[in-house]
Amino acid sequence: MKRLDRLSLGGLACLLVLVVFALGSLAGAGGDPDAIVGPRLRPPGPGWWLGTDNLGRSMLPRVMEGVGTTLLLSSIAVLVTAAVSATFGIIAGYRGGYLNELVMRLVEVLYSFPAIVLAILVAAVLGPGQVAALASIVLATIPLMTRLVRAAAVAVSQRDYVTSAVISGARLPRVLGRHVLPNVAGTIAVQGTYALSVGIAVEGGLSFLGFGVQPPQASLGVLIQRGGTYMIAAPWLILGPGVVLVVAILAINVVGDGLRDQLEPRETRSLT
Amino acid sequence: ATGTTTQPSTGPQAEVEPGYLAVADDALPSGGTLNLQVHIDSGAATGYDPQLADVATTWQLLSLAYETLVTVGPDFSVQPLLAEKWETPSPTEYVFHLREDVSFSNGRKMTADDVVGSFERLLASKSVWRGQLGAVKSVTKDGDHTVKVTLKEPYTPFLAALANVPAAVLPMKEINDKSVDPATTLLGTGPYVVKDHRQDVSWTFKRNEKYWAKGKPAADTLNITIAPEEAARVAALQNGSAALATLGNVDSAGMLAGAGDVKVVTQATTDFYYLMLNTKAPASKFADPKVRQAIAIALDQRQIADIALGGKGEPSAVTPAGLPGACDPAALPSASKGIDDAKRLLAEAGAQNLTFTLSIYSTQPAPAVAQVIQQNLQQAGITVKIEQMDEAGWSGKVYGKAPAEFDAALSWFAGYADPGMVTKWWNPEEAGFNVGFMTPDKELNALIDAAGKEPAGAAREKALAAVCAKADADAQMIPLVTRPATVAFRTDALSPSLYSTEGYGNVLRLVADARVKKSQ
Amino acid sequence: MSLLSVRNLVIDYAGTRALDGADLEVAHGEKVGLVGESGSGKSTLGSAVGRLLPRPARRGGGEVLVAGEPVFDLPPAGVRRLRRRHLGFVFQDPIGSLDPTMRVGAQLRLVLGRGADVNVHLERVRLDDPRVARAYPHQLSGGMAQRVAVAMAMATSPELLVADEPTAALDSQVREEVLNVVFALAADAGTSLLWLSHDLPAVARRCDRVAVMYGGRVVEHGPAREVLGKPAHPYTAALAGSAPAAAAHGARLEPVPGRPPVLTGPSPGCAFAPRCALAADRCHHERPDPVRVRDQEVLCHRAGEVTA
Amino acid sequence: MRLLMWWSGRALSSAATLLGVSVLIFAAVRLMPGGFAETVLGPFATAEQKAELATRYGLDQPVFMQYGHWLGTVAGGDFGISMISRQPVGAELLARLPVTAELSLLAVAVSVLAGVPLGVLTAVRARPGGGGAAGRLLSGLGVSVPEFVLGSLVVFVFSRYALGLEVGAWVPLTQDPARNLATMVLPAAVLSVFAVSVTARTTRDAVMGVLVEPYVTAAVGRGESPWFIVRHHILRNAAAPVVTLLGTITAYLLGGALIVEHVFNLPGVGSYIVQAVGRRDYAVVQAGVLLAAGVFIVMNVVIDLLVGVLDPRLGVTAGRRS
Amino acid sequence: MTGDTPGAEAILELDDVTVTFTAGPPLRRIRLDAMRHVSLSVAKGETLGLVGESGSGKTTTSRVALGLHRPTSGAVRFDGRPFPRRRRELAGRMQAVLQHPHWSLNPRMRVGQSVAEPLAVLGRPVGDLVTEMLGHVGLEESFAARYPHELSGGQRQRVSIARALVTRPDFIVFDEAVSALDVSVQVQILNLVKDLQAEYGFSALFISHDLGAVRYVADRIAVMRSGEVVETADTATFYTAPAHEYSQRLLEAL
Ligand SMILES: Nc1ncnc2c1ncn2[C@@H]1O[C@H](COP(=O)(O)OP(=O)(O)OP(=O)(O)O)[C@@H](O)[C@H]1O
Ligand SMILES: Nc1ncnc2c1ncn2[C@@H]1O[C@H](COP(=O)(O)OP(=O)(O)OP(=O)(O)O)[C@@H](O)[C@H]1O
Ligand SMILES: [Mg+2]
Ligand SMILES: [Mg+2]
């Protein structure tokens, strides 16, 4: 098994730190994220190490809670997306025919909706909240992933090793599970990281437009949205969550790239 | 209510003259273009018919083109506008003497027929404002320039109610011969006429050349840009593409600190936030008045004002704080009780582990207010779940069904210009919009009606105090804090006039006085 | 001075030694066949001539001289100049070697320079149909595509053409035509040819000299008919005896016994020793040095004792 | 002839997609809580007023009748009347389309002009194992900064400090092209940051895929310079996935435009749809989404054609391999 | 000309099989007969060589023989019966070694796993069979832990041969299975095929355009040309006295 490269390992370490951060919030470290602990809009200082927000709440536990909310929400959403896309993409790609046509048409319909409009509609229909945010992210990320998984599955299905497995008498689940899936896994992993960043962005966008997670719960999107209106008066409100968000997405992407390079060992060639 | 405040309130906004946050500099030349930005366009299926307008943003817009017989001054005194003067021969009779030099913007002179016709049209309409005018018995003209209104019974807020846009004088001749549809066309006696409008993008007004007041309006053109995103309005102020903008964030002053020529002022208003507790839902958690009283006690209005509104609001009773004659919120029965009383009341009602959902819309500062409420009530062992929706979803939930399905909801009332006016909304049969969640209280209704008849003075204040106390005990709609309006303008581009306190949510009330220093 | 001279070249891929001290000389105008089992390092050696190795390849030692210039020590621009002046390459996958998005004529023109007569060059590889120049590679048959590739490689009349199994992907009928074209063109231009192939009979028929590779080294090198007719290295002997086409019907061929080596570092002795019937003790521990047997140069401790 | 068949096939599947979108958006809009009546008429509206409004916009009929009627009028080019402005939706959309189109086109242009060279460069310089830490971080950074953050930041900074570009003062293109461009540059830049990253990445992947092709090795073997190989062999062969990506990016940009328009207060289609959703202005939401879907579908047809031209093996008109 | 039916019991019979491909957009489909009235049979224990130029329909014939493709018309019988509805019933009884060395192995599976797969499908224990099979095809035990991209083209094809042989099937299709191998390995594989055939008695359809290789392993030879079988004959007869004019031309090129 090849190891991830150093950059990806760094990204993984960042993600781990964030997860620990989020878990710490669950354990109550950093304090109650909803409690009003001090004066409004105070810069970082003892008692509120990342400053206080416009309701006099300490930002530290809020950022910690926000990381947890956002990571959890987007990860679950991406897992759902990956599961759905992999299932439909692989079956459509392998089977072809009318099934393929139907899946692709449905995907295209979803695809034709601008993601954020889709998210707004979902949030409006389901009522804002975590479920809506989750469903929005899933619906926003499914089309692209399904498409790419299907394309990859079509190519893989024509490979001789798949035919050989079929000749050996392997049943459909085995053919799809052992031969097609692992060979589109790279696509899924790469798209998954892409979807994860899209998910975080969609969550943020929804919060930005007022459809995100419910107060007083913090998510990175909510914090950044609120913080954005205090950019000058209280820059620490956006700085903390903003840095964390960028680091999180960056780390996810770096890990995704590394994962892809590992899953799809590619030879490179120099042009000189 | 109880609790400790974490930060002293910042106190009233500095005034430049009694009752004024800013006074336009008459020495400056008139003319020029005034660029404004507001957060929302007025948009209603009923169109621009002033009589049907029921939200402050629409009133504000229509006030540029329409005028009423009387208006309110900086101290909420009623002042002449289209009526030069008036007499009240008896508590039920009002005789208005109209200005003779007033024309509609199409050039036609305004007559007593327009005034009478407007009254009759309003009284025959479905307008909510009918209720605010009291019981009008008759409207007659007495010559071309005199109009007499007779009430069935004395009604003290009558003149204050006449000062708002729904009571504007409409061009009745044109409306009657159908040459003008007030739903789509703005044709009034006001300082400006519409030149262009793109829904949700912009309005352009130009001065009404036929305007009766000499030297007004000062600015030739008014561009109103609709910018829903606060950051965009802040940006426009900073780079000078807007000379004045309304802001939603109570901390905007900090945001604009250091942006050289921008001045941020907070206009106090009589509007106030209130909490609705739905007693009509099946198995309502709030059926027992003790539960509602406990909530009223546990709420810390001062903390809400200080934290959620950054010290810019004031605790209010049913009569809006800031209006002459309003009752003192500190004197309310719930204000003198403490958390332990609230807990005791809950225990008596058997509702120790009360949990309920508070439905709010996502526009700031509603979420901030809701979160402070949540913290307040937690002190009394009440768990509040906040459910945040877009405004449409929220109004569907709150007003869409009868009986309504929500537990509790947060909203605000425009406080108007007389302390008795808004108290009417505590009578659901009269208000209409709250029949779905509010159970009528006969005693309270009787007190409200009684206060309406009482002429101004100590007796009225007593009657109003009784209303306040009764509403406080009823606690189906619990007044919280007044709702400040934040206005920012560029001192290098504009010299505006602004009241310190506004009753009808009209930031643009004095825009005809505003002097443009330089045009962008 | 020979045109190509590979001296003790060592090439490692991550974890695998592909060349373990290979030596090869190609003189001007010479046709040299490079044969050997799969994995013996033919392609690696062929690519090393033009420094065309894939990224993971590392040179562990030795050198490659083309027209006297050390290929691995030249700056990038120098290598490019060397390739343009002296070298041509033809690869195994005929259609893949052509840019799929460009018409054949355009590709040739790109190599030949503006204003060159594409058709002349196509005719030289016996593609007379004018439609060929207007076709896209995927519209050609494998044989046609390979002839286009040959035309492109030979367009600049290189001094050395390295052909890495140019006919492996083609039908037996088409093979001959393509080879005929390659050899005819090379003869006309006086180009030396390094032909990597599995087809021993064809190599014997067409080449002047042949080099046999095993375990990353050239184990025998000499005139083609001599090497393949009277091998001096046990491996060559085994290889020559195992072409199916040579067998009479019903006869059983004996392939080289055992498995080809997989080297991770330098071979301690002779890489063939584990499979060699003649292997002596020192064959396992002592790397053989070249010895001359008849006209052949052989890497074998017991070279003299082989009888084909 | 073959082309004709291809077109009819595409037209059919596009129509199916549009139909699907129409059903979905129609259903979604009607499922949204908060009736049009409370929203459009306000809390004080009486039952009669609500009923009258419903009758006026045909909202009292059974849903499938409404759908059928809507579909019929849309097919006739009539997108209905906005409940808020009481103006035809089609005209308003048309008036707003240029803003969004300009924004998206600028953003696409930026992403291609910046993303493709970046991608090529990082691919050609890539080390074994993915490499190019700087390039990876850079392209990762682009996708990490959501446009609402970047947008707010840019709006703030550029309005606070005179940096030569205006924000919050949009001018129609027809009125003053130069000033219009000056006000559009920043929103387009914000919008394109994500797209640049994705383009760069896709380009890098595509180029790396091409780099190992035998014809590239052949070109290297002929002694061609890297720049020559990139220009003549790599760009076109790597173009197909990048061009295909543009379809995705368009869809993405339409969504992103919505937020950017909101932040920069540009009167485009995106902000129109957001406001309409907020007010349950059914006709506008339906028409807006249908328009976005239509643009997206047309864009993809164009891209398919383009890819066919770029890679003759995939082309509609290409002959079969025999 | 149609295929003769030898006296021995046939494992596979193609009876007047035609395969027509349709391609292209609707309404303007191109019809192409990849196989035209082909009749062939492979007796138990026999190796049938199938030769012909590129595109003559060899691979299509193999796909039909493997039950991967349903013929447009005509009948296919395996072991005397038509193909069962569920492939599973034939699991382990037929295998194939396919044309493309690059894609013949799942790049995500180690060599050992690939070779063991047909056993796993059958639920049979693996034991030392994998190592043994790898040894048979001339690969060290250590190869079991490698991934396909770590192998040369020849090594890869040996692995897929090991995989095909591991269940000791009744019938194996070799579609250009040795074309990509170097001669010495070719002989190894061909010998292996012959040895294992002698040992286990499987039948084989051996497809190649290399007449030398076919001659080495096949008992009978069928020649295809543009979808039709033009000649079927015993190997000895064929190489000494080809009947069809096309066969004669093929032999000349050898
Ligand atoms: N890119 C690579 N990475 C790792 N090992 C490689 C790579 N390419 C080749 N090898 C190994 O290097 C050795 C020599 O390979 P090479 O391709 O030169 O052999 P060859 O003689 O050309 O074989 P064939 O006849 O199969 O083409 C083999 O053991 C092979 O496994
Ligand atoms: N799925 C398919 N759809 C359409 N045509 C096909 C399909 N598969 C094969 N063909 C066509 O059928 C004919 C026979 O193809 P087949 O692959 O059987 O030939 P072959 O003899 O195996 O050739 P090769 O030696 O190149 O492998 C060819 O013309 C091919 O283009
Ligand atoms: Mg090779
Ligand atoms: Mg074939």
Helix and strand layout, with pairings?
The complex is a heteropentamer of chains A (272), B (520), C (308), D (322) and E (254).
Chain A lengths: L5 H21 L32 H37 L1 H16 L2 H12 L3 H28 L2 H8 L4 H37 L11 H9 L7 H28 L9
Chain B lengths: L19 E3 L10 E6 L17 H7 L7 E3 L5 E3 L2 E8 L2 E6 L13 H13 L4 H4 L3 E6 L4 E6 L6 H5 L9 H5 L15 E7 L3 E6 L13 E6 L3 H10 L4 E4 L4 H4 L6 E8 L2 E6 L11 H10 L2 H8 L30 H11 L5 E7 L4 H14 L3 E7 L1 H9 L8 E6 L14 H4 L10 H12 L4 H17 L2 E6 L2 E6 L3 E2 L2 E2 L1 E2 L12 E2 L4
Parallel strand pairs in B: 2-11, 2-12, 13-22, 15-16, 15-17
Antiparallel strand pairs in B: 1-21, 3-4, 5-6, 6-8, 7-8, 9-10, 10-11, 12-19, 13-19, 14-17, 14-18, 20-23
Helix pairs in contact in B: 8-10, 9-11, 14-15
Chain E lengths: L9 E14 L6 E14 L3 E6 L5 H8 L7 E6 L2 E2 L11 E4 L13 H12 L6 H8 L16 H13 L5 E5 L7 H18 L2 E5 L3 H7 L2 E6 L2 E7 H6 L4 H9 L1
Parallel strand pairs in E: 3-8, 3-9, 6-7, 7-8
Antiparallel strand pairs in E: 1-2, 1-4, 4-5, 9-10
The complex binds adenosine-5'-triphosphate (ATP) (2 copies) and magnesium ion (2 copies).
Summarize the structure in words:
The complex is a heteropentamer of chains A (272), B (520), C (308), D (322) and E (254). Chain A has 272 residues and is mainly α. Helix content of chain A is 72%, strand content 0%. The relative contact order of chain A is 0.15. Chain C has 308 residues and is an alpha/beta fold. Chain C has helices at 42-49, 76-86, 104-112, 118-124, 131-134, 142-154, 172-189, 200-206, 224-229, 234-240, 281-285, and strands spanning 4-13, 16-26, 31-36, 58-66, 69-70, 87-90, 160-164, 192-196, 209-214, 217-223, 290-293, 296-299. The model of chain C has no long low-confidence stretch (mean pLDDT 88). Chain D has 322 residues and is mainly alpha-helical. Chain D has a domain at 96-281: MetI-like (MetI-like fold), CATH 1.10.3720.10. Chain D contains twelve helices and no strands. In chain D, α1 packs antiparallel against α12 (282-310) and α5 packs antiparallel against α10. The two termini of chain D are 20 Å apart. Residues 315-322 of chain D have low confidence and may be disordered. Chain E is 32% helix and 27% strand. The two termini of chain E are 24 Å apart. With 254 residues, chain E is an alpha/beta fold. In chain E, the strands form two sheets. In chain E, strands 6-7-8-3-9-10 form a six-stranded mixed β-sheet, sandwiched between helices. In chain E, α2 (111-122) packs parallel to α4 (153-165) and α3 packs across α4 (153-165). Chains A and D meet through α3, α4, α7, α8 and α9 of A and α1, α6, α7, α8 and α9 of D. One magnesium ion is lined by residues 42-43 of chain C.
Architecture of chain A, according to CATH?
Orthogonal Bundle
How far from one another are the termini of chain B? 50 Å
Bound molecules: adenosine-5'-triphosphate, magnesium ion
Please give the radius of gyration of chain B in angstroms.
Answer: 23 Å
Q: Structural class from helices and strands of chain A?
A: mainly alpha
Q: In DSSP terms, counting alpha (H) and pi (I) runs of 4 or more, how many helices of chain B?
A: 15
Task: Give the count of structural domains of chain A.
Answer: 1
Percent helix range of chain A:
over 70%
Q: What percentage of residues of chain B falls in helices of 4 or more residues? A: 25-40%
Protein name (chain D): ABC transporter permease
GO molecular function (chain D): dipeptide transmembrane transporter activity
InterPro entries (chain D): BPD_transp_1_N, MetI-like, MetI-like_sf
Domain ABC transmembrane type-1 (chain D): 97-307
